Amino acid sequence: MLRAMSAPAAPCVLVVEDESAIADTVLYALRSEGYQVRHCLLGREALAQARAGGIDVVVLDVGLPDRAASRYAANCAASARCR
């Protein structure tokens, strides 16, 4: 009996960007390449999604309105689920 092999799941990219024109372009490009994409406008939302798991890589705006990108990155790096 032959078993159908399922394709591996596409990597999931979390895009953290508050400028809609930039976000739309990045999201379109990533989806066109076959990535699963999640989008957040604020650092606190992104941190919650990253902690929940299922994120393979984060594309992070360095000028977020609610927290500096470096602070977000430090919090994410400290979380075991973000590794």
Automatic annotation (TrEMBL):
GO biological processes: phosphorelay signal transduction system
Signal peptide: none
4-aspartylphosphate modified-residue sites: D61
Residues annotated as domain Response regulatory: 12-83
Pfam families xrefs: Response_reg
Keywords: Phosphoprotein
SUPFAM superfamilies, sorted: CheY-like
Name this protein carries in UniProt: Response regulatory domain-containing protein
Biological source species: Xanthomonas graminis pv. arrhenatheri LMG 727
